[in-house]
TrEMBL record, chain A:
Keywords: 4Fe-4S, Electron transport, Iron, Iron-sulfur, Metal-binding, Repeat, Transport. Residues 358-389 form the 4Fe-4S ferredoxin-type domain. This is Iron-sulfur cluster-binding protein. It comes from Caldinitratiruptor microaerophilus. One of its GO terms (biological process) is lactate metabolic process. InterPro entries: 4Fe4S_Fe-S-bd (IPR017896), 4Fe4S_Fe_S_CS (IPR017900), FTHF_cligase-like_sf (IPR024185), Helical_ferredxn (IPR009051), LUD_dom (IPR003741), LutB/LldF (IPR004452), NagB/RpiA_transferase-like (IPR037171). Coiled coil: none annotated. GO terms for molecular function: 4 iron, 4 sulfur cluster binding; metal ion binding. It comes from the Bacteria.
TrEMBL record, chain B:
InterPro entries: FTHF_cligase-like_sf (IPR024185), LUD_dom (IPR003741), NagB/RpiA_transferase-like (IPR037171). This is LUD domain-containing protein. It comes from the Bacteria. It holds the Pfam family LUD_dom. Gene3D superfamilies: NagB/RpiA/CoA transferase-like. Residues 46-246 form the LUD domain. Transmembrane segments: none annotated.
Amino acid sequence: MAGGTFRARARKALENPRLRRAVRVTMNNFMSARRAAMAELAQLAREGLALGDFAAMRERARAIKQHTLDHLDHYLARAATAIGERGGHVHFAAGAHEVGEIVREIARRRGVTLAVKSKSMATEEVHLNRALQADGIEVVETDLGEYIIQLAGETPSHIVGPAIHKTREEIAQLFGRVVGRELSTDTPTLTGVARQVLREKFVRAGMGISGANFVVAETGTLCIVTNEGNGRLVTSAPPVHVAVVGIEKLVPTLADLYVFLGLLARSSTGQKISVYTHMITGPRRPGEADGPEELHVIFLDAGRSDILGTEYQEVLHCIRCGACLNHCPVYRQTGGHAYGAVYSGPVGTVLTPLLGEFRDWKDLPAEACSLCAACWEACPVGIPLHDLILKHRQKTAREGLDQSGLGGPLRLGAAAWTKPWAYRLSVRVGRLALRWFAREEEGGRRWAVKAPGPLRAWTEGRDLPAPPEKSFRELWAEHLRERGQRA
Amino acid sequence: MTERAEMLARIARRLGQPAPRDQVAWDPRASLPERPPSIPAAELVRRFVAQLGRLGGKAIRVAADAEAVDYVLSVVAPDVVAAGRGIPPSPPAGGEAQGAAAPGPVLLWDDPLLTRLELAAALASRGVEVSVWRPDLGPAALKELAARARAGVTGAWWGVAETGSIALPAGPGRGRLVSLLPRTHIAVLPESRLVPSVAELFRHLVEEPDLPSSLALATGPSRSADIENDLSIGVHGPADVHVVIVPG
């Protein structure tokens, strides 16, 4: 549970121009690359080289996810059986405590003192690092961005780019402390240092910990997608590999995996495919000299099964690509830390109140969304995030948790607008009031920039053009009168 | 086991089922496109080379095995090649934050394709230190070798023209670390293993009776943009990636 409110955290973010610029630049890069990648996908589809364009692929992806979740009992059992048949160990963890216990037990049995991790939101969710560190185990994040924020003692600000908010000067300082000398701030130097430091960790580590982007139920295959190669190293170099996987990550077959791989990188960074798509089917086999001797897959519930069978089920379709963050007008201004939770942006706004205590997080759906639905348009699995956020708001109102003071006026307005005369009257009053507060601005246009009392909060960040002399209805009535007709 | 039964029962309950279901009807065929028109091998090669080049890797098609050997040599031991032509050695290019250690061995998969090329012998005869991934050397020694190697040379199971990707399976002679720890990775790919698209690759994978313990689909050099959105190459995986397309 983060301190303070979304509003307070957002304000802090908005006062940081450097952060806002970093977020904006990153998002714009991702968005323009994504557009190009989707155009290229449409071309492939025309050549018969892809299942379809974005719309068609997304439709199929949605159908696969829906089917899998509707039959999750079957697919989870099937995946567990397939992993077991291949020599992997399968565990089922109800929550954070259980995951910690399972991993610590494996580490104790194997005498692990150093564990390397590749990026995993699921392990962030359950604070696995803390659980292991309590046993004196050194845990090192190996994704460059995650490593940077681990050194800084911070949390990820974006699902895909965890450290987009850090400057190269800050990074040079953090790395300099690790190697005990002053470093120049150019990218090759910094990545070279990270490569050196982390390589030694990969080679020495007794355990590799990862998440998984997908698990193929039919074959028991874990699919891990990275650009740096740390995902492959973490799951190949240490003698033990532990994968922590949310139960919603399943897909039925390898053919279905293709659909998601076609969408994931294109939606996320605009790449056709990530640099490394790693498919792991069981541990090292007889005669092989690398790869883990032991593979453990921990299926994590942590509140997910409570979402099954509810009107929110579709949020479990999420493949963590970050497209909804990149396209969200709120996220683009505040960045991820304002959300105060592991998952930020629109998907975090839906997911965080479901995984945590609803009343602690009800300000996210209330404050962090303008219902513009850009997230839904960008989502590669078609989650109607804006609808689900609206459902959160309805729940807030239903359960009497709304403290904004807007409930009464809104109910009054809704009642008034069911009667034509009352509607006309309210519009007239509103128009006159707005004109009253309008200020002359450049270009001869008048703007309403400040409203009194309870409306002030609403106009603090927005200016409204002053309404015209006459409303459309009045103009229309005049028009009809001129033509000698009756309204 | 109880945790398993508990979780499955809980999920079934949430989905309105009395108990976990054994049978589910699902047709995965709709997840792959209809079979695409066949594309001539030369066009596939052209696309593959262009794609990998765009990502900062390098693909080359050779007409004969001997050329493949020459190409590998020019990558792993440019000085040897230059000396053969009477050119004095040039100082190594920078880019590494650390002082350059003595170049390690070239580490090869123990793979029929590389055996066919007689690559190990060719490199050794030019004075290049060569090691082959033989499981009997033991995991610890092999890990240490891979970490020291100047380059890793592997075969490849498939190549994908759409993306410039290669599929690298694990196996007794096919160490995962060979294509992962050295700064330079060279993959040798028979032309007949080129497929037009990721979809087509998956059509082949679906037909495989048994997936390997690890199958890495690698697409160009390792990359990251985690430092101020500035693209950097070779963070953990290889920075220098070559694919040599050979006949066969």
